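Incident log, structure service

09:12 report received: a user says their structure output differs between two submissions of the same chain.
09:20 pulled the input from the user's history:
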Amino acid sequence: MVAWMDREALRRTLETGRATYWSRSRSEYWVKGETSGNVQAVVEVRLDCDGDALLVRVVQTGPACHTGDATCFDSGLVTGGDV
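09:34 re-ran on a clean worker, output below:
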């Protein structure tokens, strides 16, 4: 999945070991799985080469996507002609 994580969300994630994100639509922090039970236990956090993106490796309990899919990227591969 893709989600927004600011400095505070990262601090909370590293402190608790549970993936915490900033919800721009709700204007609040949320811990993945707090209401659904589909938690993300953080295994590793990596920063990309220019420092503007994080890769958060997790152990996912239940589906990651709000649609109930295991991943948010199940809708198929987009190739040059499909864009």
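09:41 both user submissions now match this output. Likely a transient worker issue. Closing.
09:42 reviewer note: The beta strands are 20-23, 28-31, 40-47, 54-60. The helical segments are 7-16.
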